[in-house]
Design brief:
Distance between the termini: 36 Å
Shape: globular
CATH topology of the largest domain: Jelly Rolls
Protein name: GH16 domain-containing protein
Strand order of the largest sheet: 10-9-8-3-12
CATH architecture of the largest domain: Sandwich
Keywords: Signal
InterPro entries: Beta-glucanase-like, ConA-like_dom_sf
Low-confidence stretches: 1-24, 48-62, 91-108
Structural class: alpha+beta
Mean pLDDT: 74
Bound molecules: 2-acetamido-2-deoxy-beta-D-glucopyranose
Largest sheet: 5 strands, antiparallel
Number of domains: 2
GO molecular function: hydrolase activity, hydrolyzing O-glycosyl compounds
C-alpha cells in the first residue's frame, strides 16, 4: 500500500511540473459510469474480484428490469373483460395442457407466471394481479373512470437479488399504486397479451351493443441484459 501511495504522489508531482503545456485529460472512470448498464459494464465488473460472495452475507449480481406501459380506454360495463397482461409462453401443445389442466400444471414454461397489468372485470376498477399459483394471488384494485377516457398504466418488473423472484411495481397515471412479487418468475419467457373478452370473470350478460376497448402508446423498455 505504501509504495502505491508513493506512485500516486509521483504522478501528481509530474503533472504539476508539466502544467505549462496543455495536457489531454484521460478519463479513466467517468462520473456517469452508473448512468446505464452499458456504461456501467464498460468500466466495472460484476462480483467481487474473488467471486460472488462476501463472507456469506452479501451477493452481488447483475439485474435487469422491464417497463411495460400504455394508455387505455377500457369499458367497465358488466360482461366486458378487457385485459393487458403477461402470461407464460408455451408451445401449442402446452396450450392444450393449460386448457385441460389449467390449475394444476406448474413448472418450466407452464402457468403461472401471470401478471395482470390491466384487467377490468365489469366494474369501475382495474385489477393489478400477480399469480404465484392458481390460489396464491395478490390483487390490488384501483378505481377506474367509467367514461372511457384514456389513462396510462405501467408495470416495472425487476429481477430480485435471489435471481428467482420478480418485483412488479404497478402505476396508474404515473402514480405508484401497488407492489407485488412473483415467485420464480426470473428467466420465464412471457407473452404480452392485449385482449377484449366478454362475460367470464366480468359477469353476464355482456352488452348488447358495440363495445370498444382502445389502446395506444404501448411501449416496452429494458434495462440490463
Ligand atoms: C460478515 O461480515 C460482517 C461485517 O464484518 C459481519 O457483521 C457479519 O456478521 C459477517 N457474517 C458472517 C456470516 O460471518
Ligand atoms: C408470491 O411469492 C413471492 C416470492 O416468494 C412473495 O413475496 C409473495 O408474497 C407471494 N405472493 C403471495 C400472494 O403470497
Amino acid at each position: 500500500m505504501r509504495s502505491r501511495n508513493l506512485n500516486a504522489l509521483v504522478v501528481i508531482t509530474g503533472a504539476l511540473v508539466a502544467l505549462p503545456f496543455a495536457q489531454a485529460v484521460t478519463t479513466v472512470i467517468p462520473a456517469n459510469s452508473f448512468s446505464s448498464y452499458s456504461t456501467f459494464e464498460t468500466y466495472w465488473n460484476y462480483l467481487y474480484p474473488w467471486g460472488s460472495d462476501h463472507n456469506g452475507s452479501a451477493r452481488m449480481k447483475g439485474r435487469n428490469a422491464y417497463t411495460i406501459s400504455g394508455e387505455f380506454s377500457a369499458p367497465v360495463a358488466r360482461g366486458t373483460w378487457p385485459a393487458f397482461w403477461l402470461t407464460v409462453t408455451v408451445l401449442i401443445d402446452s396450450i392444450l395442457i393449460i386448457l385441460t389442466d389449467f390449475y394444476s400444471c406448474k413448472g418450466v414454461n407452464s402457468w403461472p407466471p401471470e401478471v395482470d397489468i390491466g384487467e377490468w372485470k365489469g366494474t369501475s376498477d382495474n385489477w393489478f394481479n400477480t399469480f404465484n399459483t392458481s390460489s396464491i394471488v395478490r390483487s390490488d384494485l384501483v378505481s377506474w373512470p367509467s367514461d372511457l377516457s384514456f389513462h396510462s398504466i405501467k408495470a416495472v418488473l425487476t429481477a430480485q437479488p435471489n435471481n428467482a423472484d420478480v418485483k412488479i411495481e404497478f402505476y396508474m397515471d404515473n402514480v405508484l399504486r401497488a407492489t407485488q412479487y412473483g415467485q420464480n418468475f426470473v428467466g420465464q419467457p412471457l407473452w404480452l397479451i392485449v385482449n377484449l373478452q366478454m362475460e367470464g370473470s366480468s359477469g353476464s350478460p355482456g352488452p348488447t351493443g358495440t363495445t370498444m376497448y382502445k389502446v395506444r402508446n404501448i411501449a416496452i423498455t429494458r434495462t440490463g441484459s
